[in-house]
Amino acid sequence: xTEQQAREEMVKLGASFFARGxxxxxxxxxxxxxxxxxxLATPTGSCLGELQADRLSKVTLEGEWLSGDKPSKEIAxxxxxxxxxxxxxxxxxxxxxxxxxxxxxxxLDTQNCIRPFTPYVVMRVGDVPVVPYYKPGDTRLxxxxxxxAGQYRAFLLANHxxxxxxxxxxxxxxxxxxxEETARLMFTLGDRAIRYLSAGEVAELRSR
Length: 208
Prior knowledge:
Blueprint: H1 3-19, E1 29-33, E2 39-41, E3 57-59, E4 65-67, H2 75-84, E5 90-93, H3 97-103, H4 119-124, E6 130-131, H5 139-148, E7 154-157, E8 161-166, H6 169-189, H7 199-206
Helix pairs in contact: 2-5, 3-6
């Protein structure tokens, strides 16, 4: 994929997220790793529904702003994930409704906040750890994610929302949507008795 194609894909996926209610206002940010080792990211304060290909931020893995509009202050935790996980080629961070609601609950299992009850999250994402609350842009978000990078494909930032990686921006987007749908199911089921997948069933899914 050329850089121009990558820019157009980011604009297209950002617009799709916004049109379907996964992103509101200027919340959330996207990034992807270009073939030359630099990052393409959504600018600070930008609306995912109104991105412009030629104004996307371009930065180095060290954080140097190369071109485009000023990058989001949260680019630091994106960079931490790329540096810590060689398989990470894209990052999606949204404030989507159900996952953000989940992130605000007390008593979540910080090792895996989504106990498996459908096969899809297990196959696409796996365990989802919870990162402690820090104010947006706090460098400790990057520090904590760097410690988890390479072990997980998705994270839930407490009182904030999801961060999902992928081997492409499309994969990261698809995985984010799967997580959001699972969180929606969790709130739909509420306090009803749930038939969770057994350890054996989870192991079978992970062996595929």
